[in-house]
Amino acid sequence: YMIAGLQINYGVTDWLSINGGGALIPFLPTSVTAATGGLKITPVTSGLFSAAAGFQEIYSKVINTTRIAFPYIAATYGTWESELTVLGGMSYQSGVIDSSGAPYYPKTSFFGVAGNMRVGENLKVALELYFVQDFGIVPTVFSVRYFQNDLTIDVAVVFSLYKAGASNMETLGQYVFNTPFEVIPMVSGSYHF
Q1: 46 vs 18, 42, 53, 99, CA distance in Å?
Q2: How far is 141 from 118, CA to CA, in rounded Å?
Q3: Which residues are CB-contacts of 85 (< 8 A; sequence separation ≥ 6)?
Q4: What digits encode the pLDDT tens for the residues 113-122?
Q5: Which of these, 102, 30, 89, lies nearest to 61 by C-alpha position?
Q6: 11 contacts 4 by C-beta, under 8 angstroms
Q7: pTM of the model
Q8: Which of these, 7, 51, 52, 65, could form a disulfide with 44 (CB 3.0-4.6 Å)?
Q9: What is the largest CA-CA distance in the chain?
């Protein structure tokens, strides 16, 4: 998901998809520029189970410029109407620590759980939680999706849950956008060709 921008996903085959996109958000107190690109390979699909591996690259410039690359694996159980996905991987980041320009290259593991369920003829709900090593915030996304054969509209909120002992941390909005957002609203739409 992106707050403002363009994201393109293309299924090259049933087992290979690629994506790319970007955003420019100049109206926040600190201007936001972001770009992303990646690929996903799904070599195993058997009944209700599928397994995939992928790679995503992210560039962002908010206060400092940061680049993050993360390979991941994902396992999904269920059907298009109701499914549960777990994923895990490593995040390799490069950027600068502060205004001194000192470079840093942290490596961090992450784990995610996502589930969605069809609740109406053209409606789905989803919940996603992401656990990042050495980060007290658990980014959480709740979304409602309206869909037709060729159109999808998502309305979502991103909020900060906290690991035990980390409730005194800044919110996710402060970390990402340098603004005191408690909840980050998102709306996205896609047209399927």
Answers
A1: 22, 11, 16, 51
A2: 17
A3: 74, 75, 76, 77, 112, 113, 114, 115
A4: 999 999 999 9
A5: 30
A6: no
A7: 0.82
A8: 51
A9: 55
- Report CA torsion sign: 189, 160, 98, 105: negative
| C-alpha–C-alpha distance, residues 96 and 118, integer Å | 43
Is the pLDDT reported for residue 106 higher than 60?
Answer: yes
- Residue 12 near residue 19 (C-beta atoms within 8 A): no
> What residues have CB less than 8 Å from 75, skipping those under 6 apart?
49, 50, 51, 52, 85, 86, 87
The encoded tokens of residue 136 equal 């007290």
> Which residue carries 């109701």 as its tokens?
82
- How far apart CA 54 and CA 69 sit, in angstroms, is 11
- Give the span between the Cα atoms of 122 and 66, in whole angstroms: 38
